[in-house]
Specification:
The chain is an alpha+beta fold and about 90 residues long. Helices cover about 30% and strands about 15% of the residues. A two-stranded parallel sheet has the order 1-2. This is Serine aminopeptidase S33 domain-containing protein.
């Protein structure tokens, strides 16, 4: 079965466990102004969903160098503490 054949939105909307959706606003592969908003529209006020949008982070949750292509993935760096803290806080709930 192809992953493209799975209705991910339907699958996630039926989950009864907490869901964490993270997005970097400098991600050129999964776009915040399209995909992140689509999740919010699709799931609406689903009570088990937490959304986090991070300024200037790319697809790898690393600070973007502004190139908006895969070459920026070669730049060494660290995931910001806030992302790690948000994930840890979510997991502790």
């Amino acid at each position: 079965m192809s992953l493209n054949a799975i209705d991910t939105g339907k699958l996630i909307s039926e989950l009864e466990i907490p869901i964490l959706i993270l997005q970097g606003d400098a991600d050129f592969q999964v776009k915040a102004d399209v995909d992140f908003l689509a999740w919010q529209d699709y799931l609406g006020t689903h009570m088990n969903v937490t959304y986090k949008l991070y300024e200037n982070l790319n697809h790898l949750f690393m600070p973007s160098n502004g190139k908006l292509d895969v070459s920026e993935y070669n730049t060494p760096g660290n995931i910001p503490d806030q992302v790690i803290l948000d994930i840890a806080t979510f997991l502790k709930k």
